[in-house]
Automatic annotation (TrEMBL), chains A, B:
Keywords: Lyase, Metal-binding. The keyword Manganese does not apply. The lineage of its organism: Bacteria, Pseudomonadati, Pseudomonadota, Alphaproteobacteria, Hyphomicrobiales. Belongs to the HMG-CoA lyase family. GO terms for molecular function: hydroxymethylglutaryl-CoA lyase activity; metal ion binding. GO terms for biological process: ketone body biosynthetic process; L-leucine catabolic process. This is Hydroxymethylglutaryl-CoA lyase.
Length: 312, 312
């Protein structure tokens, strides 16, 4: 079981190589993925979601998950996570020596059927089988996808989300993630759901996963933080995206989140300058501009020379 | 003096045709500006910053300010504002029948010299002269630019910002804006400064002007709202920008702000669907994509048909 290391005031789990790369039309070469993950480890991340053991036919961009896990340098103190949808995926993740597996089922039946080809109940029964197999061998996190709304069904009742959280906890998972899978959350909703989930899960085990699809990703982080949440998923450059909105941004952007947090006086344990350099290299890897703002604008206190005086 | 109309829970002042268009390299034709402002009036704005009476040489994009003011349809209940840097600009704004003038001076001496060609003290002495001339004829708002930091000087002391606010109030202005001119603010700083400014200014007269340069514009709105602020500037499509960061976004995006507010249950009095249609037309006017997210992704509850089921 992986140890959860809380170095600073908030913990950022980097998900670019999983949630980001999975929807890219280009296949990022395996050696580039490994190089990026090693650089992320060096930048100070204690948690990196490396890849996903899903069907390579469904997600060809991550077909090299095992090679990536075997190629990366394991930095002591960093937990390398694999997303896993089902027992077959869990076996592959264990074989690849993932430190932690992240099980994902949607609270929306329609979304889970579309995404996983089964009901949420069938997914969760698979998780119970996985827990029996892996208990003690790796850490297990479980994610409630579409927790803040489903693009097919609309809003999901909070009681249903919390029932799924309790179900996960009864299986003995080490952590729970509430995921705003397609960026539908608003800050008031976030504050309410976090306030209800925290007493069940605890701030050291609860992760919030936001997308910036409608521009309020960091506002949702702020609302979650003020409600007591301390762990957040984010993707370098704001990689990721929404299959229904080609121009929309994806996950909240790691370096924008880290910049905001550090400016607020919240320690992240991360080297922001290193993150900015890595983010500025992403267009080379994915073949397009990425949404992150601080990489374009510079840090707030990167000052500029004053221009020549204008005549009055 | 213009009446401040608070229709809903927050008041959004639209600034796209001023703060947005002023940095565009293309000149948006006068009839298009008029058409857009009339459409914004119809969408429910009670406050629109129409244009700026600055030197046409310094800001050629707004050289048609007087023609725009004379061409727009004045909707009852909407205040049409003109930005004014000096007494000459105030005369032109009065001649154009602006309902309100917005006086701007930076708290940063370096920024004010670069932007206005004079010290902040000289700017404010000019405002005193303007107040003597216009008192009772038009409403007057006064803006503290670089209130959350200057791109040349760095952080500005809060006491200095508040001293400028008090100076404005002693001149008899009707409203005060704290402007994050180049997007350097963070939510904790915003909460602190709003908490200090509100007892002086009052929530009905205090406006927050944020840029999304580093991605946390809406988080700053949330922090300001929670600290008691109710009035916000925003630009359709997130127009605007930062002269030091060509790829960075500009003002906070009106329709993204309105979407977030309405999802939170805060009334804005605005027709979001109309705003989205206007935002989607902006690339035609300015010749490039604009940063607004909701116009690309759709409203959170614009649902999608479920895809065909995947085999398990």
């Amino acid at each position: 079981m992986s140890e959860i290391i809380v170095r600073g005031d908030i913990v950022v789990q980097e998900v670019a190589t999983r949630d980001g790369f999975q929807i890219e039309p280009v296949f990022v070469p395996t050696h580039e993925k490994i190089r990026l993950i090693d650089a992320l480890s060096a930048a100070g991340f204690t948690r990196i979601e490396v890849s996903s053991f899903v069907s390579p036919k469904a997600v060809p961009a991550l077909a090299d998950a095992a090679e990536v896990f075997s190629g990366i340098a394991r930095r002591p103190g960093t937990t390398y996570v694999a997303l896993v949808p089902n027992p077959r995926g869990a076996e592959r993740a264990l074989a690849a020596r993932a430190d932690e597996i992240n099980l994902v089922a949607s609270v929306s039946e329609t979304h889970n059927r579309a995404n996983m080809g089964m009901t949420p109940e069938a997914s969760i029964q698979g998780f119970a089988a996985i827990m029996t197999t892996v208990r003690g061998e790796v850490g297990v996190n479980a994610t409630v996808a579409t927790a803040f709304g489903c693009p097919f069904e609309g809003p999901e009742p909070e009681d249903k989300v919390l029932a799924q959280v309790e179900r996960y906890l009864s299986l003995g998972v080490d952590g729970v993630t509430l995921a705003d899978t397609t960026g539908m959350a608003n800050p008031r909703q976030v504050a309410r759901l976090v306030a209800r989930a925290l007493p069940l899960v605890g701030s050291e085990r609860l992760t919030l996963h936001f997308h910036n699809t409608r521009g309020c990703g960091l506002a949702n982080v702020l609302a979650a933080y003020e409600a007591g949440a301390r762990r957040f998923d984010a993707a370098l450059g704001g990689l990721g995206g929404c299959p229904f909105a080609p121009g929309a941004t994806g996950n909240i952007c790691t370096e924008d989140l880290v910049s905001m947090a550090e400016e607020m006086g919240l320690a992240t344990g991360l080297d922001l300058d290193a993150l900015l350099a890595l983010s500025r290299d992403l267009p080379r890897l994915v073949g397009h501009d990425v949404p992150g703002q601080v990489a374009k604008a510079g840090r707030p206190l990167d000052l500029h020379p004053a221009p020549p005086l204008r005549a009055a």
